[in-house]
Amino acid sequence: GQSLEQPSEVTAVEGAIVQINCTYQTSGFYGLSWYQQHDGGAPTFLSYNALDGLEETGRFSSFLSRSDSYGYLLLQELQMKDSASYFCAVRPGGATNKLIFGTGTLLAVQP
Amino acid sequence: SAVISQKPSRDICQRGTSLTIQCQVDSQVTMMFWYRQQPGQSLTLIATANQGSEATYESGFVIDKFPISRPNLTFSTLTVSNMSPEDSSIYLCSAGQGTYEQYFGPGTRLTVT
Questions:
Q1: Residues whose CB is less than 8 angstroms from the CB of residue B60 and which lie 6 or more positions away in sequence, other chains included
Q2: Is the pLDDT of residue A71 over 80?
């Protein structure tokens, strides 16, 4: 089967740094993506890692270790607007570019 | 990027009826997908909508229950057939250009009574 596990909830304060982990077990692997979803909103793309290492996009960074089947999303200088659900998603391969989503992490940023 | 709209945004339906959800993309896209999401839960892929051919369904989802059409590169529909309360969920359409990024519609919130 295929599974992507994330912590269910994370709480942090404004200005802090938070790391959201994702461990995966899938039948194929072409890359790991991260999506943000505010309550009642559509998921929006944040970051993608196809190779091992760190990808940085502004306040957000994402890391991948293919040998460990593990990745994380790092959010720096947290703001209240970062309060949302965060999902990792694996592209298992093939020709369709479909995504298999993780269990999701609800991030609460407190003042 | 792509902007995606869905209709209806929400609906309340009776058990045993069917609902067709429309997904419109503002540009031609290679891939379109349909997901289901229970409030507070993750997204579950229902199927890949293939242009000009039958959709590819994920394990646990069948064409008789969730028929999908994709007549062109900008439009797709998902029908939820013979609904039961267990079908109450948010249904999301997404589209991709053949790269790793997918763009999501705002979702259709379905309640079955």
A1: none
A2: yes
